[in-house]
Amino acid sequence: MPFPTSTLTGPRLTAAALAACAAGTAAAEPERYEIDPAHFSIGFSIEHVGYADVLGMFLEGEGSFVYDEATRELSEGRVEIAADSVFTNHEERDGHVRGDDFLTAEDHPEIVFVAREYTPRGADGGELEGDLTLHGETHPVTLDVTINKSAEYPFGHGQHTLGVSASTRIERSRWGMDYGVANGMVGDTVELDFEFEAIRQ
């Protein structure tokens, strides 16, 4: 409904007009966001015999979520990652990680994260709780999330886009992957990092 003409004339908006503007802003609707596969980086690191961390990536992933930027409420979210897309810059090691000692990618081809609850912390981030299905088992995880930017994209598609960084750490043995843990050959703790741009639909 348009404001009455009298409230918009003169040097100031009336208190009623200001209240109406504020109410309109608060009424923003949740929107669906699709993660741009061209700007989706899924990284991990894990200790190797105490000498150094092995750095790796998963090269194929997709996801979407429903988020209200005004209220900072997340009502839905899901990410799927192809287990056999693991890459550590060493072909033999990649084959080992895909196999039965680790991901068993042939039997469990998808790594899936389903969001349950997002709790804002500070001005630009929060904690995201959800369930991670890995190696055929599902357990809860919590990610630290930072929203880096929210704006219209300056080139290309030109759509409203969120830039997000998220990270967590898991103990892989909890998901039944305990190869090399007992003898200290491969660390149990895996650091997971996600960087992505999500386009509002």
Automatic annotation (TrEMBL):
The keyword Signal applies. SUPFAM superfamilies: YceI-like. Keywords: Signal. Residues 1-28 form the signal peptide. Residues 32-199 form the Lipid/polyisoprenoid-binding YceI-like domain. InterPro entries: Lipid/polyisoprenoid-bd_YceI, TTHA0802/YceI-like_sf. This is Lipid/polyisoprenoid-binding YceI-like domain-containing protein.
